[in-house]
Amino acid sequence: MMNTPPTSKSDTPQSKKSLHSRSWNTGKAAFKLIGQHRTSADPKSYAVWYEYALGKNEDLNAAIDKTLALEQGISSAELRQLHETFLAASPDAERTLEGISQEIENKVAGAQTLVSEVISNTNEYVFSMDKAKSNLPAASSPEQIMQALDEIIDQTKSSQESAQTIQVALQSTHDEITQLSSRVGQLRSNLKRDSLTKLVNLDRFETLLAEGSADALRNGYSLTVLVVSAKNIQDLCLTADLDISEFILKSLAEIMTEIVGEHGTCARIGGSELAIMLPKAAYAEASKMAKQIIEELDNFRIVKKPSEQLVGYIQCAFGGSSFKAGLLPKDLIRIAADQASQAKFSNKSHVKFDLTNHQAA
Fold first, then answer.
1. pTM of the prediction?
2. pLDDT tens digit sequence for 319-347
């Protein structure tokens, strides 16, 4: 008679039914949130809302709650970034890196084998030359001398051909290793960038900000952080009758990157919030750059195609913070982000300088 393994509590029909019931209820809650916030029901959006409804990912829930607290809804671009930040499977990237690293190791091992072969061929050539040299004095006729010289020539040609073959193989291996190394560098660089805007992500921005802060402290430089938050994404989407949030954020990122240039670093730090680090720049200089961004945005018309009907202009709220001893990168970002959030609801009388449709705390 076959022995039946004991049934664990988690394997009982009742427990399985309970798990199914909880999963089903979480799924329904996720769909309710999708409807409530009028977001798309694509797999990534559903995954974010399901995880939010599950309530076990505190960082994800805090990020969503912060976005919803602004009372401007949540866009597909923000949901995609939330998925990328909190749910996307990084093991895939790690496996890719490991695979490339293994390929490089194999190529290096192959190159080492080729080098060993070169050494072996050289040793054999030297041995052959010594042997031919020892035979020359014992030669009793011109024919024997010619035969010994022919052997030397043949061995030299053979060694030369072998060396050329190995040289080609080594060059090919060098090129392959160079390409693989480039892929590793590119992949690692991509892991530090936001997939939508191509700006550096929050982790990379904090690292650069820590380096910039240390340099500012060491040399007595100024350093300013700006947070730029798109104010009217939902309004523009409603006017366009289409979710254009990703287009808006990509366009804003491109404009910021062009204006900031080599003077600083642009990043996407979350949802509709972008940031700029400006080393050796005081707040007044950062304000001038903010105005430059605003001027460009005021000329950036969003229109429907092909009718050319005006949808509107991107409006932003700005916040800033200047480096002081004792402030961490997270502090600088938080202070600037808080000001940008306040600026979204500030009256112009509370704005330090005129930003027309834009505001700065």
1. 0.58
2. 889 988 888 999 999 999 888 888 877 65
